[in-house]
Amino acid sequence: MNKRLLQVLRSGPEDEVLWPPPIWMMRQAGRYLPEYKATRAEAGSFLDLCYSPKLATEVTLQPIRRFGFDAAILFSDILVVPDALGRKVTFEPGVGPRLDPIKVSEISELTIAGALDHLKPVFQAVNDIRAALPPEVTLLGFCGAPWTVATYMVAGRGTPDQAPTRVFAHQHRTAFLNLIGILTEISIDYLCAQIEAGADAVQVFDSWSGILGESDFNDFCLDPMKRIVAGVKQRHPDTPIIGFPKGASLHYERYVRETGIDCVGLDWTYPMKLARERLGGHAVLQGNLDPTRLVAGGDALREGVATILSEAKGSRFIFNLGHGITPETPIDHVAEMIAQVRAG
Ligand code: CP3
Description:
Order of helices and strands: HHHHEHEEHHHEHHHEHEHEHEHHEH
CATH topology: TIM Barrel
Number of domains: 1
Number of helices: 17
Low-confidence stretches: none
Largest sheet: 7 strands, parallel
Distance between the termini: 22 Å
Bound molecules: coproporphyrinogen III
Radius of gyration: 19 Å
Mean pLDDT: 97
């Protein structure tokens, strides 16, 4: 197999470690790239970009052409799933996503029949990206975790602590668990369809998992992820699954051990040494550079990358950021980071 990143994802604790580690970046196709902004302007709305196989393929390939990352990630968004479920979703430049907040009575009316049809352009994009990618580049599919997607469906937007959704979940627990259940079910089908269209591996983004108490984490994040991993593995046992429970701190350990994910995304607050000790025997590690170091550049970047490389060396590891790259990041800093990682 000539895909280095996929090779690491498939490796076990006893396998030889690949070094220098493969590298990709969360949100690697995005507004820090002028070529992205040009295609985005051509597309019209953000969702038009997501649903155009031609343009989605183009922006997926842009960071690969420019930097030669070891993985391409399908260009789409986690919120195409609520869109496919018939919820109103818009992306307003400068303010982020806006949804019509879902009411309790509307949850029981949600139906996943037909939703996959709505997402066909996404599967076409996966197919087209696969055909256009150099053979050594791993193709990643993705979805949002049920909890993270639900926070946007309930609150209608991102808020600093997603408190509106936490209140809703406590007040309407049965309905909320139904919503999580529906999102879990559609996530399994959605990921499987991406794999069938050509994705080599998939990542589940739980960007808001770090704001929950233990029992809520169990019910809203851990149990659904267990079901997603089991459901996808039942149909595609050989496809690696990456889980990214951002900010989950002390919950990381159980998340890794109990879900059976193949690789875990570490945010920048999770100490690498602890990750090796507690998680490394169970999953490949991925991450965990603070994205603000990439914005700052200079010594902050060099030291951040060097520390991760020295602490991760000897473990099954994929270099990445601890969260997505931000629009203000200078492109030169990305090239410097890649050069330093590739030098081992
Ligand atoms: O990583 C990639 O390059 C693939 C594309 C991708 C996007 N969103 C494109 C995007 C991926 C994997 C996502 C995931 C996503 N979307 C998450 C989980 C990861 C994370 O960052 O926490 C979340 C929470 C969302 C929801 C979302 N979409 C938000 C909060 C925003 C607005 C914030 C922002 O950065 O503007 C989006 C919009 C969005 N999704 C953009 C991009 C490139 C920017 C919008 C634009 O180009 O106009």
